[in-house]
Every structure is written in structure tokens, then in C-alpha cells.
Amino acid sequence: MTVSRRVAWPVADPVALLERAISYALGSLQLVTAQDMSAPTPCREWNLRELLAHMNDALEALQEAVDDRVVALVPDEGPPNISSDPVAALRDRACHLLGSWTGSADPAPIRIGEVPVLSDIVPSAGALEVAVHGWDVSVACGNPRPIPAALADELLSCAALFVTDADRPARFGVPVESARDAGPGDRLLAFLGRDPSGRGTR
């Protein structure tokens, strides 16, 4: 992420955006069964259990940001920590996280590693990751759930600020061509290197 702290932020209410993204992702979690845990996901290096563990780690970083106003940049070492019940762990962490962000009135910048950024940037980035992985979960469960148009449209307003050529192909695949009449959900997925039909992989 290479967003300057001086950027005029396009998202009116980043915490509300995060709340909507989490609500969408929680809906996808309702699809998960024990039999799905080994299913492949659009994130080719992870099966569903590993993707859920990654999502849990991402929410943990967002919790650190709101609690401590800092997110440490530490390289991943080995596979993600996997709970015996990743759906329950993720649901509990998401609910706690929302309570923390909605109850925070601290406007102070948040440090990403050594770089201070606008406090609005972090929940917006979190919303983007949570929403797209919520879609990934639904695909892994064999029932792709469209990202709501209003949510996707607002995420599109900031997605290009978070995902640059430097992030491809490691974090995201190259953009996929979308239909000329594609809605915002499909355009967001295509920008993030995903086949909106649910057939492609990152």
C-alpha cells in the first residue's frame, strides 16, 4: 500500500464501509461446512481453512491498528495460524473489531510500520480485503455471492489507491477484462484479478 497521508480520502465514512464489508463476509461464512475446509479458493496458495486463517490475521492487524494506532510490518513465517474452528474464531474477532472501530473517536494517524497514514485509510483498506475474501469464501463453498453494488462501488473509489502494479502478481493477479455492462461488483473483482464468474483463480 503506497497511499500518502496527504491524500484527500474518497470514502465518506470508512468505519461504516468496514462494517458493511464485514456484514457481507459474515454472510459468506454461513455457507461454510466442515466438508468445505479443504476446498480450493480463488487464492491459489490457500485452501478454505487457510484463507479463513489469513482473514483472521487481517482482522487481528485491524484490531492492533485501532487499539495501538500502529500496525507492525513483520514478514509472514510459515503457514497461517489455523484455529480448530476458524469460522467461529473469525466471527468473534469481527464482532469485537467492529465494536472497537465504531467506538473509536481518535483522529490520530496510524503508523503502518514506520509510516504514519490517515486514520481513515486503514478501515478502508480493511474493508477492501474483507469484502473480496468474503467473495472468495463463497466461491470456495460453491455458491458465489455478488458483492453488493453500493459496497463495491465505494470500494472501487479507493481500490486503485491500495492495489498498484507493485502488488501484482504477488498480492493480486493482473486485472481481468470485465463485460462492458458489468456492475460495480464484477468490475471490482476483475480489477483485483478475479474472474467474476467464480471460475478463475488469483
From TrEMBL:
Top-rank lineage group of the source organism: Bacteria
Residue ranges of every copy of the Mycothiol-dependent maleylpyruvate isomerase metal-binding domain listed in the record: 28-137
GO molecular-function term, one example from the UniProt record: metal ion binding
Signal peptide from the UniProt entry: none
InterPro entries, alphabetized: CHP03086, DinB/YfiT-like, Maleyloyr_isom, MDMPI_metal-binding
Name of the protein: TIGR03086 family protein
Record organism: Rhodococcus tukisamuensis
Lineage per the UniProt record: Bacteria, Bacillati, Actinomycetota, Actinomycetes, Mycobacteriales
